[in-house]
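Reopening this one. Same input as before:
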Amino acid sequence: MKPVSLRTRLTWLIITVMVLVLIPLGFLSYQRESREMNELLDGRLAQAGRTLGILIEHSDAMAQQGPNASTSGTPLPVRQAMVVSVHRHNYEPEVGFQAYGPQRQLIVATANLEDLPPPTPADMGFRDILHEDHRWRIFTLQNRANLVIRIGERYDNRQDITRGLILEHSLPLLIGLPLLALLVSLAVRRGLLPLRSLTKSLDERTPGSRQPVAIDDTPPELKPLIRTLNQQFERLEDAIEREHRFNADVAHELRTPLTATMIHLESAAIAGTPQDVESALKSAQQSLTRLARRIEQILALATLEAGAAANQRVTLDLVTVATEVIEELAPLIVEKGVELSLVHDIPQLPVLGHEAALTAMFRNLIENALRYVGPNGQVEVALCKSPQAAVIDISDDGPGIPAERREIVFDRFHREDKQPSNGHGLGLNIVKRAAQLHDARIELLDSAFGHGLHVRVSIPLNPSATL
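Same output, byte for byte:
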């Protein structure tokens, strides 16, 4: 089923609402006007009956009985009834009347109602009758001269008025609704122009652009949508940038160890002595070990940059995290003969953070210290708590980093050229990213051992971080 456009949907909804409102209003208006029309015509009929009674009362036929005959109560003489022919114009209503004297003798009547039987007391007032296949509205009254006047109007006139009312109320709907539909469609189209402008702006947007969609001149209803779109564009561009950077990292960092491994394996294949084969295979194994470590660091950095755990902070104990990392690196510590100490004056140091990021930060800081200290060197990991932050201090007695170069060591793939190392320039960059995830501050200071490097990381405390 083809989806209905927003314009069509809004147009039909508005037309439907208008129809649902206008038709009941038109029907109620018709009923009210029809009732008022009937009341007006009944009033006119009653007025005509009273006027007719007064005219007959004061006619020559009544006047010959004397000026006080109508009020003295003396019975009027019986006389021959007079029948009046009614000739009406095409647009005049069909009316008729009867007039009876005090003795209920017919005095005068129109030809169209002369054969009606005399009224009874129960016939007084308004009533509807069927006479000669036509419905009549009859009003009967008895005036002060004891004359009984019956006057009637055929319903044809009222039906014509009713048809006029129906036409008056239905014709605007029949003619107006198509016009309204057209005007509503044009109005909805004009009202949706901001959406068309937004669509055009998005269609013309350059891939990779970080320029946000303009929000100043947009309607209030579209501003939340545009804000969300801008946020999504920013996230998307960040993700694309991270992907490009990750691809570049992989291409840059894996090319050399893979090439070295292939060279060592080829050397082993053409070696002439078992010692040469063993040496080449050992070199190939070392290249693969460095390759595995490099891949691990690149993946860790990609995970941190993606911020996969940005909304999954949990309470962690820094003492426990540091202890587990030191236990993991124990073989390397023993191999290098380094004296490593973990110092903390409190049994637990809880923070709200991401376990993977904090573990990667500890591992890279300790590995970086172990990499640059010589045999029998010293590395100290100290944890303490200040009023506002959890403080991590990692010091070594290696060659250290000159103060003027400490800012650039956090750049990706940066390595100090004058210092022998098998590092890849990613360790401190991973530490920097992990610190950013925790709003932490990193400082590179002079080591307390007299030479070497002292790294201090201050992680803000959170009152909800309790174990």
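So the earlier flakiness isn't reproducible anymore. For the record, Residues 314-460 form a domain with the Heat Shock Protein 90 fold (CATH 3.30.565.10).
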